[in-house]
Amino acid sequence: MKKMLKYQIYDSRKSLLIYAFVMIVLFTVSGILAASDADYFAMSGTELSTFIFFFVVGICIYKEHWLMGMQNGIPRAQFFKSCLSVGIFFGIIGSLFDLLLTKIFKGIFSGLSNFDIESFIEMLYYEYFDGLSSFSSAAVNIIFSFMSIVTLFLMGMLIAAIYCRIPKKIKTAFAIALPISIFVVLPILATFFPGLSTKAIITFLRIMGLAEGAQNPLTGCVTMAILCIILALGCYGLLRKTEVQN
To answer: How far is Cα 239 from Cα 161, in angstroms, rounded to an integer?
Structure first.
């Protein structure tokens, strides 16, 4: 497993470095523009970019490395353990990177009254973070970011596992139908069933700790931990039954 793990991390290094470079440039340019302009500049929700990035990484790393692993006789269990380890590793570096990036650039541009960097998590759980100490706030940010990255990484892996498992002739249809189902079909269904969609939204807010007056990001972390187990089991179940297609 160690060889596969090292290969996966090594193979992902360019993508990680490019992403980090782009984010640093984005923060730097925004700060410079704020320093040279009287208009107000706010950087908010940048963690979302990290979450989406690792979701895509989860799709790519499974699809590409699975085929390589099978061709080189790597046992499926070892490949799966390696993917989980990579997801955890990405969760650690991704959550620390987001926090450090925010703290460093807040410090660099602290003298600018027209420039602000707002955490997506703190915006989402504004009631919970109100009055929270800097140390506690940083710790909760790291935990929530870590769980979000690992969850979305596993979600990407599951999508890739389904794609590798289904027959070759319907792969294109699956790739087209998935985003259409999420971004078109579901919103349409929500308009036809408003009562059901409202209940679903309320339930989602509760299990993610976003209920008004009872906000707690750690509740969302517990929910994501349970979801991670389900996603991991689904991935492994599909992996065991997937064969290399010519």
So the answer is: 7
Integer angstrom CA distances of residue 186 from 76, 154, 162, 181, 200: 34, 22, 20, 6, 12
Does residue 228 surpass a pLDDT of 90?
yes
Q: Determine the distance from the C-alpha atom of residue 205 to the mean position of all C-alpha atoms in its chain, rounded to a whole number.
A: 18
Contact by Cβ (8 Å): 65, 8: yes
171-224, pLDDT tens digit by residue?
889 888 888 988 888 888 888 888 888 899 899 999 999 987 789 999 999 999
How many C-beta atoms lie closer than 10 Å to residue 70's C-beta?
17
Least confident among 13-17, 36-40, 106-110, 188-192? 36-40
**Closest Cα partner for 145 from 102, 105, 179?**
102
CA distance 220 to 38: 39
Q: What are the distances in angstroms from CA 138 to CA 79, 117, 188, 214, 235?
A: 33, 14, 39, 20, 32
What distance in Å separates the CA atoms of residue 54 and residue 150, rounded to the nearest whole number?
8
